[in-house]
Amino acid sequence: MNKPVTIVMIEDDQGHARLIERNIRRAGVTNEVMPFSDGASALAYFKKIESEPAELNPILVLLDLNLPDMSGIDILEFLKNDGHLRVAPVIVLTTTDDQLEIQRCYDLGCNVYITKPVDYEQFAVAIRQLGLFISVIKIPDPLNG
Amino acid sequence: MAGFHDVFSLFRESRREAALLGAAAVILILLTLFSVWLSHRLESDAGTAAEINRYYAKLGRVGRTMRTVESSQRGYLIAESEQYLRPYNELYSQLIPQAKRLIESVPAALEEKERLAVLLDLITRKANEMAVTVADATNERRDAAVARLKDNYGVKLSEQIEEHINALQEKAIAKRDEIEANSAELRDMKMIVDVIGGVAVLAFSFLSIWFLMRSNAALSRAHRALEKTNDDLEDIVMRRTAALQRANDEIQRFAYVVSHDLRSPLVNIMGFTSELETLRKDLFERLEKANALADTDVLGKDFDEAFGFIKSSIARMDRLINAILKISRQGSRPLHSELIDTKKLVESVISNVAHQIREKDARIAVGDLPPILSDRMSIEQIFSNLIENAIKFLKSDGQGEIKIEGYLRGVDVIYSVSDNGRGIDPRDHQRIFELFRRAGPQDVPGEGMGLAFVSALVRRLGGSIAVESAVGVGSTFKVTLPGTIAQTRGMAA
Ligand SMILES: Nc1ncnc2c1ncn2[C@@H]1O[C@H](COP(=O)(O)OP(=O)(O)O)[C@@H](O)[C@H]1O
Ligand SMILES: [Mg+2]
Looking at residues B184-202, what average pLDDT do you find? Predict the structure, then answer.
């Protein structure tokens, strides 16, 4: 039996983290959320679970690009170049709506890119849709598929 | 700056050299003049000496003639033979003329005119005496002739004449010797002067050559230094330009980061305000249920008012941040040059604001706009902002008229957007181009960033923008742009 997906949330802004989690919960997502507030600790975690089979520890990454210690792009790059973690869906959530940056993320293999709007209604709707996405997503098995 | 120093010292040096060479030239000229004068002097002295020699010989000849005539006269008287009279007949007539010529040809330097006059007088008398004697003898008055011979008158005359001639000759010789001695001295002096002159010419030549070589060397040194300075200058300009570019990039990056990072807290403020609003609903429902308070309506209104202010402020702040973001992004966007049919572009801009024009019932006229080689997106933004403003600030009464025109001036293209709207106070003509600044009554929505954006775009294209306007009459915005890309920096072809 597959373990439910853990949501790894890398977000330095505590307020944003809280709002995101609230809205995910409102969308009916009950998965465990594991928050990281900087890039280094998130990378340390990834390196720890890297060797474990993905089905034992399926993850979905919510990534902010503006981290205090590094650019989220670096983390995205790390994930997408990793043998096991490559399959984990990555949702980039950031305040930037710069077309170049968005394109860069898609090129690196990010699955969804969401701009955090100041308009809260829009924000909430986007996160709830994300919850919908999380609940239907099937994490591919790196060993069998 | 070594090059400039070299050039200046070269000037100083060359002034000193010129003074030196000038002095040398003056000395040389004086030496030459002196030598020339000496030559003349020597020449004229030699002439005088030769003249004296000729005069000396003439004196001798006069003496000889006199004696020959005299001995012929005597021979004739003593021997009474006609044959003795032949030399007398031949030479007698020459005696006086010879003496006269002597007076004419005496060198001025001798100052002997008076003595020669005396000599002439003596010779004349002697000639007369001889003529009278010979005449007497011929006319058979021999006795009278011999008697005259015997009284020695003629002999005395002869002696006096000889004495005079001798004295004159001695004086001439002395004068000639004096002149010759003097000439020898002059010749020595001339030799010395000529040697000095020669040495001076040589020295002068060497000096000139040395100066020439030195100034040549200095010149080529200065030339090299100048070349190096030029290179350095180019280098400096390049470095400065790079530094400016870096500063510009930094400002852009700064604006970007600031506006970007300001957004994060705004998301929170908005998010939690909304959360609070939800909470408020819950809270008030519960309060009503508990009926703890009678005037929940009033409280609720206060709450709503506060939330309203917070939210509208956040929205405004978000718009401002977006404006900064837009301008900073515009600055880093690469420009693409292409030939733009400006008239067509303007017409499409107008069609995008057609409903606003209809709303205001404005008339809009597009003139013959010259095409331009420029960045399409920028030109579009410039026109759409200016046209939007022209519509937005039309007066509520009267027929709104908007005119878009263009013409060429030299290599520049000038476009203008004019309206007969409310106009702008001259005090605000500068201010309105600044970010977030607006003018006049604040009865039209807007953030005051349109013109700041336009002027940033125009500047980036290498052009300029100006406004002419009077309150209540209308406004004209004039954009001057370079007609070709060559004049525009940072343009990607
Ligand atoms: N065509 C115009 N006629 C009168 N006033 C104008 C016109 N264009 C601009 N202005 C003045 O300049 C100010 C700044 O314009 P702009 O930067 O476009 O900001 P906004 O349109 O948001 O007010 C306007 O608020 C207005 O006072
Ligand atoms: Mg405007």
Answer: 90
Per-residue confidence (pLDDT) for residue B80, from 0 to 100: 79
Average pLDDT over residues B157-185: 91
Inspect the interface and report whether the beta carbons of B271 and A66 lie closer than 8 Å: no
Which residues neighbour A72 within 8 Å (Cβ) at sequence distance 6 or greater? Answer: A10, A39, A63, A64, A65, A66, A92, A94
Q: Which two tokens stand for residue B120?
A: 């002439």
Q: Please, what is the end-to-end C-alpha distance for chain A in angstroms? A: 16
Minimum CA–CA partner of B330 in chain A: A98
In angstroms, rounded to a whole number, what is the distance separating the alpha carbons of residues B242 and B205?
A: 54
Q: What is the pLDDT of residue A30?
A: 86
Give chain A's domain count. Answer: 1
State the closest ligand 1 atom to the C-alpha of B423, by its place in the atom list counted from 1.
4
Q: Select from A141, A140, A10, A7 the least CA-distant residue to A74.
A: A10
A51 within a domain of the structure (yes/no): yes
Lowest mean pLDDT among A68-72, A133-137, B203-207: A133-137
Q: Whose CA is nearest to atom 24 of ligand 1?
A: B438
Domain contains A15: yes
Q: Which domain holds residue A17?
A: 6-136
How far, in Å, from the CA of B345 to the mean position of ligand 2?
19
Return d(Cα B206, Cα A78) in angstroms, integer.
82
Place of tokens 């997906």: A5
- The more confident residue out of B294 and B271 is B271
Give a yes or no: residue A1 inside a domain. Answer: no
pLDDT attached to residue B488: 42
The model carries a pTM of: 0.55
* Rounded-to-10 torsion of CA B339, B341, B342, B348: -120
CA distance A13 to chain B (A): 8
Contacts with A119 from chain B: Cβ below 8 Å: 270, 315
- pLDDT, tens digit (0-9, with 9 covering 90-100), for B365-398: 999 999 999 999 999 999 999 999 999 999 998 8
Q: Measuring from atom 1 of ligand 1, which residue has the nearest CA? A: B390
Indicate which CATH number applies to the domain containing A77.
3.40.50.2300
Distance CA B454, CA B420 (A): 21
Yes or no: is domain B334-490 CATH 3.30.565.10? yes
Which residue of B260, B274, B315 is in closest CB contact with A96?
B260
Contact criterion met (CB below 8 Å) for B371 and B340: yes
Q: What is the mean pLDDT of residues B427-438?
A: 92
State the distance from the centre of ligand 2 to the C-alpha of B447, rounded, in angstroms.
7
Whether A74 and A39 have beta carbons less than 8 Å apart is answered as yes
Residue B433 beta carbon below 6 angstroms from any ligand 1 atom: no
CB of B99 shorter than 6 A to ligand 1: no
Q: Give A-chain residues touching B270 at CB under 8 angstroms.
A: 118-120, 123
> What value of ipTM does the predicted structure carry?
0.79
Count A/B contacts: CB-CB distance under 8 Å: 49
Q: Taking 80 as the threshold, does the pLDDT of residue B7 lie above it?
A: no
